[in-house]
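Lecture 7 notes: from sequence to structure.
We start with the chain below.
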Amino acid sequence: MGAEALAEEHDVAQPHPPIVLGLQPSALVDHVARVDSSFLIHIPGEPGGSIPVAVEEVEYILRKMNTHVLTSPDHASPIKTMAGGSVANTIRGLSSGFGISGGIIGACGEGEKGELFFHNMNLNGVDLSRLRKKKGHTAQCVCLVDALGNRTMRPCLSSAVKVQAEELTREDFKGSKLLVLRYAILNLEVIQAAILLAKQEGLLVSLDLASFEMVRNFKQPLLKLLESGNIDLCFANEDEATELLRGEPNADSVAAVEFLAKYCKWAVVTLSANGCIAKHGKEIVHVPAVGEDKVTDATGAGDLFASGFLYGLIKGVSLEECCKLGTCSGGSVIRSLGGEVTRENWQWMYKQMQIKGLLMPDISK
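Predicted structure tokens for the same chain:
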């Protein structure tokens, strides 16, 4: 298919399959900036969401945002560029923060942005033997963060290289235990193919609902995925949960987690500053947030919550402890700009885990 494994080119040896695989069809580079909220009215879509935009719109936003950037004494630069994408954030968090081996299935383009993605993920110990390198552009996303830490995301995926459904093989999934997915209508075919192959290899499948716009605009394909019975774990935030139950008489977070639990073994709804609610079997738990008093940037909060929760799931701890691990992990990333946890903030998380008596990862930091 005109693709080659990046790990071969860079001589990366991976003797054992990663425990967790993340399907991110297109490698992604994030441009994260703190901006005045007035800037958000000049870009397409609603503030707070995540809708795809064209290359020209990304270039326009990047040009214009410099005049709306907010400075802060806490940051050397109000703009950061890093490897990104929801699934990549979760897998990187599992690897670098929790010592759980993780790998990425996807594709990146040639050139500077593709190399940036590769080197950042590789530096964090992520298995890239399933990341294909292709001729073309690497996907980008502009993440605009207001003074309150709320983020508005505008990904540009349409012209980027991606792994196709027919490129996936059972060998990609063999020996792994869990597949992490993010719902996206543009990737529906490859998502469906990945789920089928993952199930043939006995993997659990975790699905994140992505954004309230994605749920609102493409609800029926999402419901088909859930109704298939192949989604073992589903993560939704409060806005996504509201969209999922729009039109229902009771559309609160409890109703949403009950709805998801009809189809998934584990159902989780994150509630920002109010923590999370989760259900497994007949058990429902509600766990408060951690670190919400110091929100610099909400980018990656849900992704890193998933890292902590999945770490707990892999280690076999209780549902409540999985949620507590998730809130500690999610609380760590919101303390600085972007979806990558800094060394200092990992240390903050470990301290919170110790205070709460949670299972510590076997990792040296």
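Points to note: The chain has a mean pLDDT of 89. The chain has 13 helices and 14 strands.
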